[in-house]
Amino acid sequence: MSSYNRGVRFGVLGPVAAWDDAGNAVGLRGPRHRAVLARLIVARRRVVPVGALVDDLWDDPPPDAVGAVRTFVAALRRALEPERPPRAPARLLVTEGPGYALRAGEVDAWRLERVVGAAAALPYEGRLAPLDEALGLWRGPAYADFADEDWARGERSRLTELRLHAVELRAEALLELGRAAEAVPDLDAHAAAHPWREDAWRLLALALYRTGRQGDALAVLRRAKGLLVEQLGIDPGPGLRNLEEDVLRQADRLDPAGAAERVWARTAAAYDRTVTARARLESTVGLLRDLAVTGGEGLLAARRHRVEAVHAAEELGDPDLTARVIGLYDVPAIWTRVDDPGQAAQVVAAAERTLAALPGGRDATRARLLATIGLERRGDRSGRGARAAREAVETARRLDDPALLAFALNAVFMQTFGRAGLAPERDRIGAELVGLAARNGLVTYEVLGHLIRLQARSGLGDFGAADRHAEAADRLAERHERPLVEVFTRWYGALKLAAGGAPEAAAAAAYRDAAALLPGAGMPGMEAGLAALAQLGVRVLHGRPAQTGPVDWGPYEPWARPLVLLARGRDEEAAAALRRVPDPPPDLLQEAMWCLVARAAGAVGDRVSMDRARAALVPAADELAGAGSGVLTLGPVSWYLEEPGVGPGGVR
User: Fold this and answer.
1) Which of 149, 245, 523, 591 is the one with CA 20 to 30 A from 312?
2) Helix, strand, coil fractions of the chain, as percent rounded to 5
3) What distance in Å separates the CA atoms of residue 632 and residue 355, rounded to the nearest whole number?
4) With pLDDT > 90 as the criterion, what percentage of the chain qualifies?
């Protein structure tokens, strides 16, 4: 797609509208101009003959109707493609055969379909963010300007039904996640506005019951029955009838979480009466380990309480107990920036103290402490993390302990970033993890192995193999309820789209979809700055300068800043900022950071910075820059090793 029409977005979930790539509204002039645009969007990139447009625009067409349509199309082209050179062919609103077609890249209604369809297939934990995004697309009734037009009626009905389905999917997810009280207000309004939808009444009654309002739940069910019988002359379906019976007898199946809570409370009370403080600490860490793999608030809480448990164990003065409390938390990790450096430092310090105090002859226990140090010292330049991880692996192999070996291999993975170009080594680690975990029923490490290989094969440009590992990880995640996996595979999907040469608008949209999964996932070390960096990668691939608006670059700001300043025309400041850029941390995105340095250095003619970046990148000459992260790319590293080493299109 050419530069002069890139990024135009269209909206039909409300009044028909269009926006340019800066988010500014495109002036669409009169109602018939909008009608032509809306009619072409309804056609979904197919050709609409001029005669059909005439019939749709007028009940009684004027003599010059065909000429008028052509005038409307010409005006739309000027509005949608203002930078198109004179006499250059249109690229967005095109003439084909007997009529016109709109080659739209992004339409809010199409996005709604994709997001709701994908959300319906997700575990409940992953549904809320995409469904909130989908519902947030609505600005009013679909095709609001054309409510009475026959050509819009079918689309309006279909999109309205999709919106109602999204509301009910979201409510269902809230109920299954134990958040019934949050669902009640929206369901109440939804059922009142759409009284013939039995699912609306069913979900509202169930939400009321789960918040302890049994009487209100029965009242809702009886009100629904009255409306259906008296105004439609039909009896409620089996879903409503059975629900009323279950509410009357307080069936456990109506609130499995509540039943589980009662069992949990009784069991916890019995446990608390019979076990010692030391046993409670070890059990707590086991629970935290299970909690961590749920993601979101569970992961954040698990990390916080883990540090508290470690401190509590140290206060008891028993090195063996402290070692077990630290080492039991063997939660697999794939992202190389820690989510909370302060917490990680506290765990490492406790592990080092415990190693020094631990009596001899505790090889497996020591190995778990060493693996913990290797995992938590991500980005470690001192070498301590790498040495600890290697020693843990050696001990685990000697002891023939599969679970310990998997934990230690995860630590070794975290330490394979001492230089660029180590994707093949990480691929070997991932392959060993997959085989080891599959043979020994270590599901979380089998998932980890597939994700490591997904990253490594992406970095090597082998998307066929990466696809297979993404699919395997998704299958395991679905079977064993590992919601965080989808975050990584969705980002991989955006990476593959961008690396495969997709139009800029499509790649940018895919990254926005992926970024929507990060808030609330419980991984601030991954979330910070990643969305902006991914969008910069898309712009680089299309030969465009860096984005210049307000952007959260997170920890990647020093490496992005020179390119942002160049895009603003502030070359001297860019050169000064480039001279201050530090070496990137040894992590999944170090190649990408060096490529940003090379790109800026080529633009300002900074030979020192260029040589510095090229020396770091030479070992990765055959890789895709940044793709070893499994989330984004800046194109082949070889671009940045060539003179002038700035990749496609320069930075202007």
Assistant:
1) 523
2) 65, 5, 30
3) 39
4) 65
